[in-house]
Amino acid sequence: MSPDTPHDEEELEILRAWDAGLLKPVDGMAEQLKGHRAAAQATFRKDKRLNIRISSRDLKGLQARALQEGIPYQTLAASLLHKYVSGYLVEPR
Question: Domain coordinates of the chain in residue numbers?
Fold first, then answer.
C-alpha cells in the first residue's frame, strides 16, 4: 500500500470488481450480517473494569503512542490487551 492510496492491491481488486458489477450477493446474506454484527457487539462490549498501576514512564509512552494513533490511551491499552489475549499481538522482527 502506498502513502498516496488508502487501499492495498487486494482492496483495489475488490473495488474494481464492484464497479464492474462482478460481485453478487450471497444467499442468506441478511442472516450472515446479523450474526456478524452480534459477534462484533459481543467482542467490543466493555462490561468489566480493570485498574492497574504502571510506571509514569510507561504511561507517558502509552499516551504518546495513542496521540500518534489519534485515539485515547485507554482505548489503545484495551486494544493491546485484546490483541494479546487473542494471540494477534506479535513482536516486530
Answer: 50-88
